[in-house]
Structure to design on (700 residues):
């Protein structure tokens, strides 16, 4: 009897650790999914990997900080008002930067060789990082506290408000994106251009405008992810977008590049595996393990988890 | 490439060797000393704070007429807390014969690889902050350390948790650097030598922001105290996230985590955290108080290591004065001499053969109401330190 109790307690403990790690991983995974979606959408319409997606997150986070810091006092509506302000600030700044980047760095070389486009996007990434570095320095800046510190228990795990918000809002964004893709004209154009830009043009679709709109959507996703990253981590720093950018890209590949559903799945899988690896194997090697997983999946299933993407 | 260009390049190359020809240290009109700390990068705040402490000492000395009739010129270098950069800086400094002494670096990780370079050039180095004990075990005679080492700090922190707090189940996290990891090892060893247990020993990477995975693992091991060996950026986040996960055990750390930034980043989770530090609080005595006031007028509140910078700079300048000439070898001899004694804001400095301070005090602080309040101190004196 006693042994049963011990085993049960141990099992409960393991259950609760596992569920806690799953909660942690799910939260992280949602953030990666949003970034991965940005990569996938832009790749879909342009066959181009926009490596500055992570930096758009960072810009979004700083935009949110700026908005709350400078305009926060004029908003009386408390935490909800401040959060809305943060997101608006983030989205505004990130969309602006995304559009400028598209117009100045991407559009002029759209017809150029793939490698040139890739290097240009890396350049954008570095420019954005250094712009922020030079203007605010390399310190960690504390993100304003928008969520209460309380937590509630769910299946043995402690879930904090910020974690619930990240998951809920990410799902909201992903559902919203799905709706845009399936039920709106923009979505139709996006899918058409992803399928074949030439045919779409012949059908009378303004390809340039569609690409611009895709960048806006990608920037909104990145900005939202950035605000949530800032709130979840509690700090922002000029290079905070670098590693998430790489992981988001990894997630997009994991899920099968070019398919939005793949990006979402890839993000979640990556977030959970990374967390499980850090929790059960080694925290020092968490990034290495996550990337090793990518290599393994690509060997076993080269098309990614969801199979062939929009491009073949 | 045509002939003219080739000739030009060769001549230019040859001329570049002349760049080593400075006036020798005897002939220059100022006494040049170098100060190195991270003035850019994620530790820039405390790095600049250290430089400011050094600067105050130099300005003070110059206002009194300088040393040996000459003004002291402070040359500041930035190592960004990066070991590779630190080595570059060390090469720069040692290739400039007019620089007769060094105050620096700030991090153990940057100081350690730089010290062989200084030693080979025979440049006296007074270390204001680095606490890794290995630095003074390299057999160099030109190194002088002001603060206690992590052998002192780590042992004292562990003993504080064991004896004052009665803890039995230690969870230890380190940041995998040349500072955090050896410090954590010292804490581990001290705990292992006692009747308490180590229930977790984990490494994280500097720059990581999300520690929930490793903290969840630690929570499962059921510790009654958490020690972190590392810097305030990660320390603050670890304290914050551990509370979020419901890990309510006391948070212990050492000098690298001691900073207002820790409180800022950790928020309410900082409350009750206990930290060892290698310098006294400004409220400790009159000397620290008047130094803090003077510092505040020029640079604002002290961030962390400024008092140590002040003392280290003064030690170097006193050494030069004692030597009677701005010559590296004589300065080293003067600092090693049996009657060299300096009383400063962080305590007394008198150097053992290996360069460690024979009088070292570890100070303990607790975070109360968002501020660091002193709790207790432990001093090692020359006699007890025989074995070091």
């Amino acid at each position: 009897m006693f042994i049963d109790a011990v085993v049960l307690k141990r099992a409960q403990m393991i259950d609760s650790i596992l569920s806690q790690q799953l909660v942690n991983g799910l939260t992280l995974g949602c953030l990666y999914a949003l970034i991965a979606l940005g990569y996938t959408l832009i790749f879909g319409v342009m066959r181009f990997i926009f490596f500055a997606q992570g930096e758009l997150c960072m810009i979004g986070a700083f935009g949110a900080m700026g908005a709350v810091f400078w305009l926060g006092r004029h908003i009386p509506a408390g935490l909800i008002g401040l959060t809305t302000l943060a997101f608006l600030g983030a989205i505004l700044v990130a969309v602006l930067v995304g559009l400028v980047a598209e117009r100045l760095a991407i559009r002029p070389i759209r017809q150029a060789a793939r490698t040139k486009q890739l290097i240009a996007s890396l350049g954008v990434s570095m420019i954005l990082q250094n712009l922020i570095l030079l203007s605010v320095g390399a310190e960690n800046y504390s993100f304003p506290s928008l969520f209460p510190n309380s937590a509630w228990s769910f299946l043995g795990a402690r879930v904090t408000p910020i974690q619930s918000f990240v998951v809920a809002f990410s799902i909201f964004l992903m559902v919203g994106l799905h709706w845009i893709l399936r039920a709106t004209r923009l979505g139709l154009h996006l899918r058409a251009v992803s399928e074949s830009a030439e045919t779409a043009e012949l059908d009378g679709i303004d390809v340039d405008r569609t690409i611009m709109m895709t960048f806006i959507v990608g920037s909104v996703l990145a900005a939202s992810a950035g605000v949530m990253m800032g709130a979840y981590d509690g700090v922002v720093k000029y290079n905070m977008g670098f590693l998430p950018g790489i992981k988001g890209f990894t997630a997009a590949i994991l899920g099968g590049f070019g398919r939005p559903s793949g990006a979402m799945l890839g993000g979640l899988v990556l977030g959970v595996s990374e967390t499980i690896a850090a929790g059960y194997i080694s925290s020092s090697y968490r990034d290495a393990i996550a990337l090793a997983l990518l290599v393994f999946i690509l060997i076993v299933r080269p098309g990614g988890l969801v199979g062939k993407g929009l491009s073949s | 490439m045509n002939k003219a260009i080739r000739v030009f390049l060769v001549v230019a190359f040859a001329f570049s060797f002349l760049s080593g020809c400075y006036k020798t240290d005897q002939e220059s009109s100022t006494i040049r000393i170098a100060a190195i700390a991270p003035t850019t990068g994620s530790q820039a705040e405390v790095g600049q704070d250290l430089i400011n402490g050094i600067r105050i000492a130099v300005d003070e000395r110059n206002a009194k007429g300088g040393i040996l009739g000459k003004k002291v010129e402070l040359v500041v270098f930035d190592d960004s807390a990066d070991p590779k950069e630190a080595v570059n800086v060390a090469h720069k400094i040692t290739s400039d014969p007019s620089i007769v002494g060094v105050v620096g670096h700030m991090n153990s990780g940057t100081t350690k690889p730089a010290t062989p370079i200084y030693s080979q050039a025979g440049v006296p180095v007074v270390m204001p902050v680095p606490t890794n004990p290995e630095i003074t075990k390299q057999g160099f005679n030109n190194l002088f350390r002001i603060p206690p080492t992590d052998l002192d700090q780590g042992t004292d922190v562990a003993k504080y948790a064991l004896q004052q707090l009665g803890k039995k189940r230690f969870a230890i996290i380190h940041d995998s650097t040349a500072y955090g990891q050896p410090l954590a090892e010292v804490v581990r060893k001290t705990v292992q030598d006692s009747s308490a247990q180590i229930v977790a020993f984990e490494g994280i990477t500097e720059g990581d922001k999300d520690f929930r995975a490793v903290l969840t693992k630690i929570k499962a091991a059921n510790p009654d105290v958490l020690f972190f060996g590392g810097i305030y950026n990660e320390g603050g986040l670890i304290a914050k996230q551990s509370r979020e996960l419901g890990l309510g055990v006391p948070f212990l750390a050492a000098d690298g985590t001691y900073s207002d930034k820790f409180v800022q980043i950790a928020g309410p989770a900082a409350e009750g955290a206990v930290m060892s530090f290698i310098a006294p609080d400004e409220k400790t005595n009159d000397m620290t108080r008047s130094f803090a006031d003077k510092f505040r007028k020029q640079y604002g509140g002290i961030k962390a290591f400024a008092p140590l910078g002040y003392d280290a700079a003064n030690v170097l300048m006193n050494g030069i004065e004692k030597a009677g000439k701005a010559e590296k070898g004589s300065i080293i001899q003067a600092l090693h001499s049996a009657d060299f004694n300096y009383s400063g804001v962080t305590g007394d400095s008198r150097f053992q053969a290996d360069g460690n301070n024979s009088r070292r005090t570890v100070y303990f602080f607790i975070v109360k109401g968002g501020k660091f309040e002193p709790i207790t101190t432990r001093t090692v004196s020359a006699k007890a330190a025989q074995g070091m």
